[in-house]
Amino acid sequence: MKLKLGIRSIGEAGKHAFNHNRQIIQLGKLGKVEEAIRIFFNMTHKNLVTYNSMISVLAKNARIRDARQLFDQMSLRNLVSWNTMIAGYLHNNMVEEASELFDVMPERDNFSWALMITCYTRKGKLEKARELLELVPDKLDTACWNAMIAGYAKKGQFNDAKKVFEQMPAKDLVSYNSMLAGYTQNGKMHLALQFFESMTERNVVSWNLMVAGYVKSGDLSSAWQLFEKIPNPNAVSWVTMLCGLAKYGKIAEARELFDRMPSKNVVSWNAMIATYVQDLQVDEAVKLFKKMPHKDSVSWTTIINGYIRVGKLDEARQVYNQMPCKDITAQTALMSGLIQNGRIDEADQMFSRIGAHDVVCWNSMIAGYSRSGRMDEALNLFRQMPIKNSVSWNTMISGYAQAGQMDRATEIFQAMREKNIVSWNSLIAGFLQNNLYLDALKSLVMMGKEGKKPDQSTFACTLSACANLAALQVGNQLHEYILKSGYMNDLFVGNALIAMYAKCGRVQSAEQVFRDIECVDLISWNSLISGYALNGYANKAFKAFEQMSSERVVPDEVTFIGMLSACSHAGLANQGLDIFKCMIEDFAIEPLAEHYSCLVDLLGRVGRLEEAFNTVRGMKVKANAGLWGSLLGACRVHKNLELGRFAAERLFELEPHNASNYITLSNMHAEAGRWEEVERVRMLMRGKRAGKQPGCSWIEVQNQIQHFLSHDPAKLRPKNIQIILNTLAAHMRDKCNTSDMKSAFDIL
DNA sequence: ATAGGGTTAG
């Protein structure tokens, strides 16, 4: 009797534990770790599964250290406990820790081997994964083989993937899909289609892969055709197609699809909300958010981010406050919102109050400090964070680079164990930002030696640095490199090349690149037009504008900045005015301060100062320093002291520490013989402690950068350069009215 | 009920 009762009570306790274990797992999936932990501690009858489940939940919710602690505390472990812990490390990208456990575990099964192989493939250590695959005792278990195929396929090593695929004794559908994923994820849709059609058996995952592949490669109509043929589309199929439409701006079509979905899950709702957020239609997003039956943390976070993206921080905070269970993602979202609005100290307070930071949260705070130039605080956090990922390291590298501390950036870079493309890009961009071309180029070469191929952003950032520095020689070398590495068809790279050549004064090369690009976009046109403008080719700019219109490319704000500045550089005031009018009336573009700035420059140069000033008075946007600077310059040339003084005073408000504004005004007074005024402005300048940044320019001659500082001692210059400068000065004196050009001679 | 391999949302 007693025994029976005992057994029954154990049975009931077991049932109890069973239910609690399930609860723990479910809460873990919802990200509610704290609640899961509470249940765990309140359980009187914990069994082995309870511990295993708790370890899994902790590991998957950024509490990997707690997970390990619990694992170590267990008096009895089974194989699942070991596998769960290894899976936890896999989830947190901690391969070394996983490998240590794998080495000491008492026995291994197929799960253990597959886990470890996946660990290595995720880190890109394919040789290591391959070694392990050879050692797997059970050759018929497909998971290990499949993990290996996926590893090769994701890296684009199709031949290796295919070899493993053909070698494996028993294939299942996942093996086929892993191969297929390799093709679709790497944009090889031709191969993908071939493989897909050769498959005798397909499931919805195979179809979904194809649709996603077409979406990714920009072939929306093929994606749609395939989507419509899917025998039993599931939620993933619908969401993939929806996001495909959203990606190409077809918001209304995406909504239509959403309304047609037979069964919507949370992900479907979240995808639609994210689509509206991405399109900055936050009100629409909120409407759906309020309607959706079950909100999860992604739904809440999307709305919070949506409000932040449109600058409504208060609304974001309200939503956050209403959120029932604030997980780390939501906390980080709001914290980033504070950072983006420059409220970094509030963000830091919030950071301190967060209990369990994950890597993303640490990284966001570090990025916040780093972007505001507070590198000491960034470093402090970086040192404190328990687990760093590549983003953490890269943030520090670009932070130091922006702060002009390339020695520190290099130190961080060298201390990094696994450098990725972004690390190299950050370092190279840093060198370029700090005018260290040679170091940048050396890094580019070193990067190649270490087996890392530069990507489009390597080229885009190096080219834009070359453009800003007019470093033509480096730009040319990059161009050759780009041609060799096959990135010429990338629009980012192509457009950066156009801009580089244009800014280096090589209009013909810019045109050549423009012609070589297979399918130009608006940015390509804008780069070309700005290039013409910059180099004084107004007629070419006009022609390009006509041609782009005939090809049905619709100009934007930037196009018109280019067009107006083309007119301005060529002294074509009336055409400029016409274009300005056309922009507003025919293209419904609201002029920005930059457009007005061009207009003022345009009118000011030809002496139409009254009109320039009336333009400024009539404008709706706030005038910027560039605009007042143009007006002041024009007033000096055309000797309008009264208006010049007005413009100068606005400039003193906007940039009180910029000495050149004070100097221009004081020179104007001097030229008019008003010596008391000269003294007054000089006093004002001293009062504001305005410092003069010496005028600086440089050109590249035979791979050497030659710097020129205004008023630098002539003896520091090479003799031949000084001779050229003197000759130039003589030419200028010959052509111009000396008193007007006085400032131009400052450099000589 | 807890651990592995292929597809979707922040």
Automatic annotation (TrEMBL):
Q: Which organism is it from?
A: Glycine soja (Wild soybean)
What family is reported?
Belongs to the PPR family. PCMP-H subfamily.
**Protein name per Swiss-Prot or TrEMBL:** Pentatricopeptide repeat-containing protein
The organism's place on the tree of life at top rank: Eukaryota
Q: Name the keywords, alphabetized.
A: Repeat
Keyword Repeat recorded: yes
PPR repeat segments: 47-81, 109-139, 141-175, 203-233, 234-268, 296-330, 358-388, 389-423, 521-555
**By its UniProt entry, which PANTHER family does this protein fall under?**
PENTATRICOPEPTIDE REPEAT-CONTAINING PROTEIN (PTHR47926:SF468)
Q: Does the keyword Repeat apply?
A: yes
MF terms (GO), sorted A to Z: RNA binding
Q: Name one GO biological process term.
A: system development
| InterPro entries documented for this protein | E_motif, PPR_At4g14850-like_plant, PPR_rpt, TPR-like_helical_dom_sf
Q: Which NCBIfam families match?
A: PPR (TIGR00756)
